[in-house]
Amino acid sequence: MGTTVSIELTPDRPDDELRALIADVCDWLHEVDARFSTYKADSEVCRFRTGLIKLEDLSPDMRHVLDACADLWRDTDGYFDAYATGSLDPSGYVKGWSVEVAAARLLTAGSTSHYINAGGDIRMRGHHPDGGPWRVGIRHPWEADKVSWVLALTDGAVATSGTYERGDHVVNPRTGRPARGLRSVTVVGPDLALADAYATAALAMGEAGIAWLAKRAADGYDSAVVTDDGRAFSSANLPAAV
Amino acid sequence: MRRSTAAVVGTLSGAALIVGVRLSVQPPAAPVAAPPPVDLAAGTPTPKPKPSKSAAGNKSGATSKPAAPKSGLKDGVYKGKGASNPYGTVQVQIRVEGGEITAAEATYPTTADSATINPPAVATLKQETLGAKSAKDVDAVSGATYTSKSYAESLQAALDAAKA
Known about the structure:
The structure holds two protein chains of two kinds. By secondary structure, chain A is of the alpha+beta class. Chain A is built from six helices and eleven strands. Helix content of chain A is 35%, strand content 24%. In chain A, helix 4 runs antiparallel to helix 5. Chain B is of the alpha+beta class. In chain B, strand 3 (88-97) and strand 4 (100-107) form a beta hairpin. In chain B, strands 1, 2, 3 and 4 form a four-stranded antiparallel sheet that branches. Chains A and B meet through strand 3, strand 4, strand 5, strand 6 and helix 6 of A and helix 4, strand 5, strand 6, strand 7 and helix 5 of B.
């Protein structure tokens, strides 16, 4: 799926070095797309689907992704399902994971203040160039030019799943029908891949996802939810900006 | 007598939900808050009369007479009527032995959707008014995944354009 990635680095080094860091992130994300795309017949995912590559010959990254999808399937009671559409589609994990890896590479390279926003899912560290925390708006589910919450974070991930942007793209794997009940689910936590997967799973659950998300708070994943009929819910420790 | 028993059970239901399982719980002297409607299912060793639904299920009847004699409990296992919330049904059960409540516990649904959200501790998200704020002091925007195409119309695109 084509999306757009925004990267912001707090300028702590010469411009050409900043650009090299951004280029490295872009290279990695393109590499991930080539290896894990479900649209490219020669990707590792597609070759594994068609049996051209065997389980024992998979790359370590692919094994990690498959293991993580299996863990998430269990932890979400089947609502996060990489096989929801019939054949393997780990995109719901791969996007968050690839950004998580990209941000870790930035950190390894010495960039301690940055954010990467991949299609609305964000991993950030450190501070805004003005010294404050990063301020992240959660898009209002009906008014595209408004935000319904503003969060302040110095280290963490914010992922949002919703039905307002791409329609009924999230399916309840229990029923095979489009998810109903929740319009927007945002999960905030330490790991973008998990935050994204939790948000998608809760959206698939419908209103029952609200209570399911409440339990994730104990593991450091807070959430903000808007139902189809416009009710809003948030967990007690959601890092709202002041 | 039935009515007052119902009142005791109802209050304990509430207490059990808060403190979880407590053994040898003494019946409180006087119930304070109106309990959720409780239907006494027949206790295992208890002989009939079977509880009259109109009396036991009548909330006002149970609350209008809050006196709760400590000695009014018959031995047996009693289940409260399941209390439904959007995420499933919570049912409370007590055991009475020798006129004393010896066990009180809440059971949670274990089937279908409810099983996934079946909480060991009932946590919730707080409901609030949906805000609609301007994005003027925001560095990045999180939202449902946009495509390359719809990115152009997104707030994030506007922010990126402003910084470029």
